[in-house]
Amino acid sequence: MPRTSSKWIPADHGFSTIEVIATLLLVGILAVVVAGRMVDTTAELVAESAIVKAHLRFAQSRAMNAEVPWGIRFDGASYTLLTDGLTSSALLPAESSATHFLQAGSASASINPVVFDQWGSPGTSDITITVSTSSGSKSIMITKDTGFIP
User: Does the residue 36 lie in any domain?
Assistant: First the structure.
């Protein structure tokens, strides 16, 4: 039998360059999406707690320089600066009003409102303020008599 010429037949194994690039692109997109969802959200909690502490210290400072008590009333997702038990006309630091709205959670106090006298004291009981976000909660303690806010 005479020999016939064989035709060139491409191999059926392996991936083309386009298939490899498309796969790497999809894996990269999935990695970015997953990494974005795994970002640490405790930064929100730390930031909100720091803002609450600063505003408490502001109210305490105003009380120590006035003849009327100053304080803060907590209302879940917001809190308001008080002067002599009423909403203050003074603005909270870095705010456009006497009320601050928590961006990512809520705040509550064991004694509400928190009121400071002319010596900066919150009274004869320790006060615990709890700031909560989706990543957890953090407590802020105001020491009785001295008004120390760590």
Answer: no
DSSP letters spanning the chain? -PPPPPPP---S-S--HHHHHHHHHHHHHHHHHHHHHT--THHHHHHHHHHHHHHHHHHHHHHHTSSS-EEEEE-BSEEEEEETTEE-SSPPTTSSSSEEE-SSEEEEESSSSEEE-TTS---SS-EEEEEEETTEEEEEEE-TTT----
Higher pLDDT residue, 12 or 75?
75
**CATH number of the domain residue 88 falls in:** 3.55.40.10
Evaluate whether residue 97 is within a structural domain.
Answer: yes
Total number of domains in the chain: 1
In a domain, 29, yes or no: no
* 28 has pLDDT over 60: yes
pTM (predicted TM-score) = 0.72
Six-digit token pair at 2?
Answer: 């005479």
Please check whether residue 18 lies inside any domain of the structure. no
Length of the chain: 150
Token digits of residue 63: 């009380």
- Higher-pLDDT residue of 51 and 16 is 51
